[in-house]
Amino acid sequence: MMNSATYPAHSYQDRRTRLETYFDRTASKTWEQLTSDAPVSKIRATVRAGRDRMRATLLSWLPHDMTGLRLLDAGCGTGALAVEAAKRGADVVAIDVAGSLVKIAAQRAPRDVKIEWRTGDMLDPALGRFDHVVAMDSLIHYRPFDIVAVLQGLTERTGGSLLYTFAPSSPALEVMHKVGKLFPRSDRAPAIEPVRERLLRTLVASAMPATSIGRGERVSGGFYTSQAMELLPQ
Ligand SMILES: C[S@@+](CC[C@H](N)C(=O)[O-])C[C@H]1O[C@@H](n2cnc3c(N)ncnc32)[C@H](O)[C@@H]1O
User: Fold this and answer.
1) Up-side HSE of residue 42: CA atoms within 13 Å toward CB?
2) Contact status, residue 106 vs residue 116, Cβ threshold 8 Å
3) What whole-number distance in Å separates Cα of residue 27 and Cα of residue 212?
4) Cβ(122) to ligand 1 under 6 A?
5) Does the pTM exceed 0.70?
6) Cβ(98) – ligand 1 distance below 6 Å
7) pLDDT per position as a tens digit, 36-76
């Protein structure tokens, strides 16, 4: 197994650059459609339904009244979670590397909610400190060590909970993933990185001793599987 000493330091930046190209250009229209009410294929409908459930789960872990609380929507995409948090009174900063998605998010958002929309890296220190951070499906394309490094960076500037999701792995999924890597990908989509929950828990515990793992929930249905995890300051 690769450890942090042998892990390439450029891995995070490389993946982020690929994700920017993918979400900003290749998949921008598809993502715009998936995150709207427009009709989609049966397969995508299962993804939309799963994502709706995941968003509802994450929102249910945040305070109902967020007046005066600062929230970062890290990897906001087209902004659905940012809007819901802002409706609860949060001061929301919503950031994504894909500028075209941020533009759609800002156009879609109701006029009466105030959200600071930004294009850039969720780890930008200029964003400041937050009471809560949510990264819904924004880290599913990163490898375990990168996920943990991002979580570390985000917890350092978060006073309350950090909610994020990962793609849970199982031995069967890992085989499928390895076989998939043998074939050329026509849509240039960066692969989702399935992660074993136990490995992630071990890495989080050793890299962030001042953080405890709170609630967890797996949302699975049709072509969507994602697992939410809550990190809390001790
Ligand atoms: C699967 S989408 C999810 C979007 C949104 N959170 C949602 O659930 O609708 C992942 C998003 O994370 C963004 N992203 C990935 N890495 C990022 C990074 N390092 N900084 C900011 N955004 C990032 C991608 O551009 C993409 O829009």
Assistant:
1) 1
2) no
3) 35
4) yes
5) yes
6) yes
7) 999 999 999 999 999 999 999 999 999 999 999 999 999 99
